């Protein structure tokens, strides 16, 4: 596959963004190329387009499969494995969110739960546990919210996101009403 300057710019940028989302730059570039390709790509296609070794491509494909971001395709008469993005862009976002939560949030919550079960040995640990409890509560709240979001169909998620900034204004309005009191 030959990349146009526009596609190349996006693929390289996506690689940089991927490193912030939890997978390395090369894996991000590979995924971007697969997402943007109209046709399934094989390891050779990825290796040539991105100028990376087949070994690196193989490891990257395994990583993307562990994130459940790829769908394997077979082409009749061809022994190579071909890959496309698994699902829609919304599916990708949900899988990345799920995976990040599994790899980052859940272990942190587990550590916090274990730590909070222990009695503090001194005032310093008591203060530290208060802060850890706040972190735990925030992560639990976010995790519960994420659970709700992950069960919503994409159309409802879009609607919710569009309501986002408007909801801030509604909350400000209700705060003003509550400050006036019931007799105002």
Q: Report how far the terminal alpha carbons are from each other.
A: 68 Å
Low-confidence stretches: none
Number of helices: 7
What structural class should be given to the helix and strand makeup?
A: mainly alpha
Strand tally, please? 3
Percent of residues in helices comes to: over 70%
Radius of gyration: 23 Å
Strand order of the largest sheet: 1-3-2
Beta content comes to 5-15%
Mean pLDDT: 90
Sketch the topology as an H/E string, one letter per element: HHEHHEEHHH
Shape: extended
Major sheet description: 3 strands, antiparallel
GO molecular function, one term: DNA binding
Family: Belongs to the GbsR family.
Pfam families: MarR_2
Keywords: DNA-binding, Transcription, Transcription regulation
Structural features, described:
With 184 residues, the chain is mainly alpha-helical. The chain has two domains: 5-85, Orthogonal Bundle (Arc Repressor Mutant, subunit A), CATH 1.10.10; 89-180, no CATH class. The chain has seven helices and three strands. A three-stranded antiparallel beta sheet has the order 1-3-2. α2 crosses α4, α3 (43-50) packs across α4 and α5 (89-117) packs antiparallel against α6 (123-151). The radius of gyration is 23 Å and the shape is extended. The model has no long low-confidence stretch (mean pLDDT 90). Residues 22-80 form the HTH marR-type domain. Pfam families: MarR_2 (PF12802). InterPro entries: ArsR-like_HTH, HTH-GbsR_regulator, HTH_MarR-typ, MJ1563, WH-like_DNA-bd_sf, WH_DNA-bd_sf.
């Amino acid at each position: 596959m030959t990349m146009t300057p526009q596609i190349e710019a996006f693929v390289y940028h996506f690689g940089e963004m991927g490193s912030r989302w939890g997978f390395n730059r090369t894996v991000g570039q590979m995924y971007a190329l697969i997402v943007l390709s109209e046709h399934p790509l094989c390891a050779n296609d990825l290796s040539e387009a991105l100028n990376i070794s087949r070994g690196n491509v193989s490891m990257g494909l395994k990583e993307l499969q562990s994130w459940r971001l790829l769908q394997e395709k077979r082409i009749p008469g061809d022994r190579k494995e071909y890959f496309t993005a698994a699902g829609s862009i919304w599916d990708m976002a949900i899988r990345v969110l799920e995976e990040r939560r599994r790899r980052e949030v859940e272990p942190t919550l587990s550590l916090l739960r274990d730590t909070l079960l222990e009695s503090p040995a001194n005032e310093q640990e008591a203060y530290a546990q208060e802060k850890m409890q706040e972190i735990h509560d925030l992560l639990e709240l976010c995790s519960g919210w994420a659970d709700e979001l992950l069960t919503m169909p994409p159309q409802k998620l879009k609607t919710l996101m569009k309501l986002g900034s408007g909801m801030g204004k509604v909350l400000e309005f209700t705060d003003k009403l509550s400050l006036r009191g019931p007799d105002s």
